[in-house]
Design a protein that fits this description.
Elements lengths: L2 H23 L7 H26 L3 H27 L8 H21 L8
Helix pairs in contact: 1-2, 2-3, 3-4
């Protein structure tokens, strides 16, 4: 197991819960309907990719480590830009969001490649 991936995944999942709760309660009076949607989407993708980081930590290979780095970049760029747009209403930040989406896709491609190359003895009882 790779400790940094497990720690990063755990922190991403925990902070996704905090951001979602903060948005649903403290930010409720100031968020527009569209802003609430952006926040919810950011939380969903952050949680999903936090879980992906945990999976990377359980099946560590060099490729998984690179995939984990792309997942983290995706969370920062994709979810981070959505959070900023939700709070500020500045839609110009939306230009960053697809870059984060590409990072997610590259991460998943590397994850698949790593699992494909992995000997069965690594994941079968």
């Amino acid at each position: 197991m790779t400790k940094w991936m497990l720690l990063a995944g755990s922190l991403c999942c925990a902070s996704a819960i905090l951001i979602g709760a903060f948005g649903a309660h403290a930010l409720k009076p100031i968020l527009t309907e569209q802003g609430k949607g952006w926040l919810d989407t950011g939380v969903f993708y952050q949680m999903s990719h936090g879980l992906a980081l945990l999976a990377c930590g359980l099946l560590p290979t060099k490729t998984q480590s690179i995939a984990a780095s792309f997942f983290i970049a995706g969370i920062l760029l994709f979810s981070g830009s959505l959070y900023c747009m939700a709070i500020t209403g500045n839609t110009q930040l939306g230009i960053i969001t697809p870059i984060g989406g590409v990072c997610f896709l590259v991460g998943w491609g590397l994850f698949c490649l790593s699992v494909w190359r992995m000997p069965a003895s690594r994941y079968l009882p």
